[in-house]
Amino acid sequence: MNISGRFWTWFWLAVIGLPLVVFVVWANLTNPRQFVSTLLNGVTLAALYFLVASGFTLVFGLMRNVNLAHGSLFLLGAYIGWVVGDATDNWFLAIAAGFASAALVGFLLQVSVFRFMQGQELRQTMVTIGISIVLADLMLWCFGGEIYSFDPPRAIFQTMPMVVVGKYPAYRLVVLGIAIAVGLVLWLFLNRTKVGMMIRAGVDDRQMLAASGVNVQRVFAITFAIGAGLAGLAGVIGGTALSISPGEDTRYLMASLVVVIVGGMGSIPGAAVGALLIGLAEQFGLSYAPTYGVVFTFLIMVLVLAFRPTGILGRRST
Amino acid sequence: MSAAQWRRAMNSGAGRTAWSRPPSLPARPGPAGSAIATGTAASPVQSIVGALRTIGVRHVAVLLVVLVYPWVATPFFIYQIGGQALVLGLIALSLTFLGGYGGMVSLAQMSIAGLAGYMVAIFGIAGEAQGGASSLGWPWWIAVPIGVAIATLFATFVGWLSVRTEGIYTIMITLAIGVSFYYLAQQNYSIFGGHQGFNQVHAPVVLDIDFSKPIPYYYLALFWALAGYFFVKYLLRAPFGVALQGTRENPRRMNALGFDVTAHRVAAYAVAGVLAAIGGVLLTWYNGRISPGSVGVGAMLNILIIAVLGGMRHPLGAFIGAILFVLVQNFAIDVIARERFNLVIGIVFLSIVLFSPDGLLGLWGYVRTRILAGGVQPKIRGWGVGSTRREPARMRNGGTAADR
Amino acid sequence: MRATRAGLLGSALGAALFAVAIAGSASAQETIKIGALSNLEGPFAVPGVDGHRGVELAVKQHNGMAGGKKIEIIKYSSDATPDKAVAATRKAVEQDKVNIMIGPLSGDEGIAVKNYSKSHPEMVFVNGSSGAQATTLQDPSPNFYRFNTEGAQWMVGLGDVALAKGYKKMFLIAEDYGFPYSQVQGFMASYCAKGGRVVKKAWVPLGTKDYSSVIAGIPPDVDALVVVLGGSDAVNFLNQAEQAGVDKPFIGGSITVDQTVLNYKGKKRESLLGTASAGPMADGIDTPAWKKFVADYKAAFPQGFPSPSLFAYLYYINTQAVLLGLDAVKGDLSDNQSKLKAALAKLEFDGPAGHIKLDENRNAIGDTYITEVAKAPDGGFYNKVTKVVNDVSQTLGLPKAEFTKMGLGSRDVPNCP
Predict the structure, then answer these.
(1) B189 near A CB under 8 A
(2) Partners of C252 in beta bridges
(3) In C, which residues are within 8 Å of A169 by CB distance?
(4) ipTM for the whole complex
């Protein structure tokens, strides 16, 4: 890198970094409790966003399919998980049911609809929009507009003591733990299994993957099922933290969109980075600048896309 | 250079374009006077003369229908169906121009339209807004040009931000810009009037004609819709439009030929911005108000739905999509159980996208060639079960982009 | 080729439109058509259905007749955006030619429909459930009638209750738009005047789900929280507050501890018991009129809510007012419905939740009920009535000059930090 390039990197780092440092110091001096609390909230919210966005980025990375029905799959997993959890009184079964039902629907969608539209990105996007409209209304019909709330074991759903802040909801830390666990499992799956290897190869070069004799359609179906299943899993977990009702699908869809674009489409670590950035921005915005804080997350997305179009950790693939 | 990079460079243009066929690069000779057939870009006079020669009975018939329509329809149909369809069609036309011909599908068209509407409300005459926002009360012939100018500037800015992205990324970044604008308008009370927006933004009374009444409004909307339509058609045959379609097909080659691809794209955003801004002012006059709800995600997606429904292969598609959309929106509730008509809209949209990627125009084209032309079945892209190995680069005309 | 294809399709569509457009709709002479606009889509989809039920119940109780003529109700839907509400109203008025219009549901829609009503002075528009102050206080329309009280009126008297409970310093959390502004104004009008202090206001943008950072900013020295959130936002907030260890009591807005929140599908929170709130009605009203209303609702709509919701009640009294007005003029809609307009302006009647009459802006003066969350014998939660404030008008109990000086509720009006 020449001198000029390095200069600009340091320049931008200073322009963004210095005010941040000043802010952190000021916040800690004036009200440390609020700062630490917001920090924790941001990280735990980021964990939830990562859960939701991981499936989205997986599907896009491999199949270049922007699945705008991802939010609807989230909600579907949450509702079905609720029904199962209510019937069996077991929260863990609810999680499993949420994952399984969404994975099944995702698998069916890929095999019956998206398989025939390979390569037509815009058309796939439009179809997912249509599917999300239809699914949203069907769920409104079936489940009504009431608010559904989950009933996890008391042990993880209570207040616990925390440094500086005093009391902190235990469940948020549980979500953080689950997100880390899911991230690790995904990493292991992608990097240490044969199917994972095929998926990574397909993200890099789909034609070569097909040329080397792999049944690409099967890999696609598995990937879509996993991506959708992750959405359903996130639905139950997110629904426990924040209840579910109609309209949650668009909310979480927008969140995963922003996270994935900022972090880089097709990259799981990118989804983690993006989620962290967006979660922190959202919580700090809400805590310190509530009026316009809500615009922050989208502005970050616009800036990232304008100056680094593939996202922070993304890379162009063929 | 790796094999992947080489392949990408050779096929880049065709690989990431929207899935409508380039309408003005036909495999067979076009009508006389077309820029492509003669191999050179036509001068304005030549293209007008050429266009006049292509006018057939059908065009005159359609023109007569839209001109005579208000004299036979009820006020409701003139205003809520006709007027609204024309205005929504105009905004969707800007998207068809950008997406179908420029290869950049932008979801921010409704935001640009909304910004123009807000500016007209702020600079012009509007009712009292809550929380401190006030209108300057300037006459419409100052407020409207200012509104259109500001919105066009915003559109250029959006273009500048989005020009480095392609395909799906453009959709995402324009969606993000649109949502940012929505939240800004909702949260800001001092300029944008917050959640309630501006009420009582009415079309002016000019020369004793009240343009907020159904028939004058319809003709106003019709005038601008026709102006937009013919402008787009002219522009597409002008050097700028031809170059724009070239940048959609293969930007690398256009660059090599000496065209400034970035400048063409940003200019395309600006042109689309003018169309959307005019549509936005008309839409604000139609509703008599503007608020964040008018520029929310739902409204942005509606424009995309309209453009896709009609088909992005021809400017008329925007208006056809708008007519269908407005009809379904207004009458679906009479046809199906009142609570479930959102389902109807979703299913209609889904069916059209699944079975006819080029929207209604594509469907019509298929019907015409398959059934009316007697069974000759052209290989129309997007139909039926395709091989998964069919790559975008190969899909266009049966050859690769390198063969052209 | 392409142009002709497009042209042919265009002319075919045009011809089809012609045919449909020319067909008009004729209305029978002995039927009065009433359009009922509610929300069947969007965020208020489910309460919106209950709004239509309120209309149906009123018509049913009148045996489908009023003023000697048959009543026909046509349902319309909107999605809480004002544009859609106006479009639906325009369709009702100009295409389906209804005689009277009832609706809409939400505050912003109400302002838009009120403005539309000015362009049709020949017919009567009656409110559905919209509760924005500005509808009748700013630029009222001479033919728009609201027989329900609005958001600010619903909170009058709650300030005194808060002070009586010893809450001298409070922290406010509410959504950042018009309806909560009115509610907060209604609460603070008497609370501030009598010495209470709202030390900090947290206006959260619409659509916020995660309140943890707002909760983190609650000053430790406040006595209680004023929470004006609705629906699922209220559920989320209450859950998160409990988990974050917030042990301060709440005062709730009119839709913060209502039926939908108390009856959400999940574990009930014991910490809700005792929360004070206020509104134009409550499930626990003890009068025979209210009990009859509930019984009729349950009999007519077995698939409805266990008890009529706020929206059912509001649409019900507005419809009842229309029907009573029609009875008074014996169904005479001639001369641009002038007799009906005069009758409605003077109309006073006893609804299920108290006496209703109109002020000079054609807005209702009615009763406000102060409630407290209590546990029913069967274990469910409901709102028990603790106090009734009679004849609340839009000036919120203040002298008119003082209220006009204060202005309509907004982020900073009123203020008493």
Answers:
(1) no
(2) C227
(3) 212, 240, 243-244
(4) 0.83
